[in-house]
Write a structure and sequence with these properties.
Oligomer: single chain
Order of helices and strands: EHEEEHEEHEHEHHEH
Strand content: 15-25%
Number of helices: 7
Radius of gyration: 17 Å
Strand order of the largest sheet: 2-7-1-8-9
């Protein structure tokens, strides 16, 4: 049994259910979810350290200079990134840590941490994915079309992951991911 916790990268297209799967996984007291940092302002009831670590542009850029992120990117004028310090602390305590990030971020993390375990959550089909996106009732037709186009691109990158898990039935998907974690804990 290893003493250091695993670093897990979980990705997948919008609507694949990765957030729901991660929500189930972190109910385990030995699994933590890395909270991303951003320079965007909090929205609504968002709290610092809960949904995001809200940083000033200067704070974020200082962390970049100090190599303080596994990965980061700019999106619509704001930075987003995965801070290293909390992840390293939890892993040293034997906790497994999940980075729920985009496919581009996964490549960056794998280049820094080649031993990380990457898991791609895939919908059973594009038809099911579109149905899930429509079922949310929160997106316009234009946004759904963009998400579907992006999903097609992301699905092509699934083969770059260590594991691909189809989220057809949530319970089965969560069980499959738990099995992957257990197998890798004992390596």
């Amino acid at each position: 049994m290893r003493s250091e916790g695993l670093l897990l990268v979980i990705s997948g297209p919008a609507g694949a259910g990765k957030g729901t799967v991660v929500g189930e996984l972190v109910k385990d007291e030995n699994i933590r979810l890395s909270i991303s940092a951003t320079t965007r302002a909090p929205r609504g009831q968002e709290q610092n350290g809960v949904e995001y670590h809200f940083l000033s542009r200067e704070e974020f850029e200082k962390m970049i200079e100090e190599n303080g992120f596994y990965e980061y990117a700019q999106y619509v004028g704001n930075y987003y990134g995965s801070p290293k310090k909390p992840v390293e602390k939890w892993r040293s305590e034997g906790k497994d840590v999940i980075l729920e990030i985009e496919v581009q971020g996964c490549k960056k993390v794998k280049s820094i941490e080649p031993g990380c375990i990457s898991i791609f959550i895939k919908p059973p089909s594009l038809e099911v994915l579109e149905k899930r996106l429509r079922g949310r009732g929160t997106e316009t037709e234009e946004v759904i079309a963009k998400r579907m186009a992006r999903a097609k691109e992301e699905l092509l990158l699934a083969e770059d992951y260590d594991y691909v898990v189809v989220n057809d039935a949530l319970e089965d998907c969560v069980a499959d991911v738990r099995r992957i974690i257990e197998e890798n804990r004992s390596v």
